[in-house]
Design brief:
- By secondary structure, the protein is of the alpha/beta class.
- Helices cover 44% and strands 14% of the residues.
- Helix 10 (215-224) links the parallel strand 5 (206-211) and strand 6.
- The structure holds pyridoxal-5'-phosphate.
Length: 480
């Protein structure tokens, strides 16, 4: 059956509209049998659940009958309704990549997630730490860099001055020894993962992510066509003994601060993981997104610093240490992959913007970056303390806090609540202007309890103190 999805909204709604339109223009007449859900899902490259939901909708609206054991039949003509459907505005997916992308990621959902109307206090993870001193310093750096940066195409691997500054920083603060030749400047972790996938993974090959994991990283791998499998984490980080016996091509980990659980990967686990990678000829992508921000001890040395086999791609980003709109990050590449990764970056965008790179290089070498890091660490520590104190007070007996003494977020588990209970709790919070967010999108399989991922970067201490009584009201209602 030929159906054209219009690319607007969730896939099940797109499919419902496409089916209605097929019914309306007489392609499937009254009394005809609709394809079995499994077959239609396979033909369209959709999940069976998507098809089941669309069929259920048609059934609920009275256009379809289900007869036990014999399938689904068109039960009523549909001319009037379908005539009202707007014409499709989006082409059918033209490639397997486009098809997978539509299935996996909805920009519309992301948009609503970002700007939920009326949210005054948002615990959205990923919001930047707004800092007027940084804004002033950055404006100065940009103006300076713009005045002397050549307008010619930049080096696709990244400005040598920035790569050098990053090596210096990594040696002093993350225990990573690298030369500027090892470093590739990219536009954030997002591009680092996508270039790594291009260079390392054929369609259908196995990639392991932590369960739970950073949803965007997982989605890039899925869109690329990798077979993505989750391996659990415990308080020592990734459970290496649960890694698949079939050799994964790529294993993505957050050893410094597991996202989002907060676990720090212990030294024995790090060594086991490197040993596993050696035996299975796997590559490791070490996502060190916020390893800088530790509040009880010095940051741990990176996994890459223990790697003797050249299997670790170490990925750093300035999204957390500075701000995410900068879109700058880097890969410390194994020597054997340098050529392929730099070529992939060249093919994608010819290199990142030279002015921002020059500004950042100067900011790092003149000391402004580390001053900013020290200030941010203090600020985040104050916000974290305010949130923790408040949560302990209002949540006693109702919530469990997973605290990891690091980063910019906490995980809060709600005792004895289902995911449906959590949906009502989130809706109530949003009515009060309080942005709370489920941890669920960061799991491949839903966790067995309901939890919140609470980012505290976007709220000042006084805003956190204003938000906590609202959270208390939400909990009071949920635990009445
Ligand atoms: C685990 C993890 N890795 C990386 C990033 C940063 O991604 P990017 O560098 O593309 O902004 C984030 C941001 O939220 C993250 O949570």
């Amino acid at each position: 059956m030929h159906l054209q999805l219009d690319g607007r909204g969730p896939l099940h709604a797109q499919l419902t509209r496409a089916l209605k339109s097929a019914l309306a223009n007489g392609r499937v007449g009254e009394g005809s049998r609709l394809p079995p859900t499994r077959a239609l899902a396979r033909d369209l490259g959709l999940s069976r659940n998507t098809v089941l939901t669309a069929y259920e909708q048609l059934r609920a609206e009275g256009f379809m009958d289900a007869r036990v054991g014999s399938g689904s039949y068109v039960s009523a003509p549909l001319l009037a309704e379908a005539a009202n459907d707007p014409p499709p505005r989006v082409a059918e997916p033209q490639t397997a990549y486009a098809r997978r992308s539509r299935e996996i990621h909805s920009l519309a959902t992301l948009g609503t997630r970002r700007k939920v109307q009326g949210i005054r206090w948002s615990f959205q993870y990923g919001l930047p730490l707004v800092n007027p001193a940084l804004t002033t310093a950055w404006a100065r750096e940009l103006a300076r860099a713009a005045a002397y940066t050549t307008p010619n195409y930049p080096d696709p691997q990244g400005l040598p001055a920035l790569r050098e500054a990053i090596c210096d920083y990594l040696a002093r603060r993350r225990g990573v020894q690298a030369t500027p030749d090892d470093v590739l400047i990219v536009s954030g972790t997002q591009q680092a993962v996508s270039l790594s996938a291009r260079v390392l993974l054929e369609e259908g090959e196995l990639a392991v992510v932590e369960e739970p994991q950073y949803f965007a990283l997982r989605q890039i791998l899925q869109m690329h066509g990798a077979r993505v499998q989750g391996t659990g984490v415990d308080t020592d980080g990734l459970c290496v003994d649960q890694l698949p016996s079939a050799s994964p091509r790529l294993i993505c980990v957050t050893p410094s601060h597991q996202f989002p659980s907060g676990a720090v990967m212990s030294l024995p686990r790090r060594l086991e993981l490197l040993q596993y990678a050696r035996q299975h000829h796997s590559w490791i992508l070490e996502d060190d997104y916020d390893g800088e921000f530790r509040y009880d001890s010095k940051p741990l040395a990176a996994l890459r610093s223990l790697d003797r086999d050249g299997r670790v791609l170490y990925v750093g980003t300035f999204s957390k240490t500075l701000f995410p709109s900068l879109r700058l990050g880097y890969i410390v590449m194994p020597a054997t992959l340098q050529q392929d990764l730099v070529t992939a970056k060249w093919a994608q965008d010819f290199g990142s913007s030279a002015i921002e790179q020059a500004a950042l290089a100067h900011f790092m070498t003149e000391g402004g970056f580390e001053r900013h890091l020290r200030r941010s660490t203090r600020t985040l520590q104050e916000r974290r303390a305010a949130l923790l104190d408040g949560l302990r007070e209002i949540g006693a007996g109702r919530i469990d806090i997973a605290d990891s003494h690091a980063g910019m977020h906490l995980v809060v588990w709600l005792r004895d609540k289902t995911h449906a209970d959590l949906d009502s709790l989130l809706a109530h919070a949003h009515q009060l202007g309080l942005g709370l967010y489920s941890i669920r999108p960061h799991y491949l399989q839903p966790p067995d309890r309901a939890g919140l991922l609470m980012g505290y970067c976007g709220l000042s201490v006084s805003e956190i103190n204003e938000a906590l009584p609202l959270f208390a009201r939400v909990l009071d209602q949920a635990y009445r």
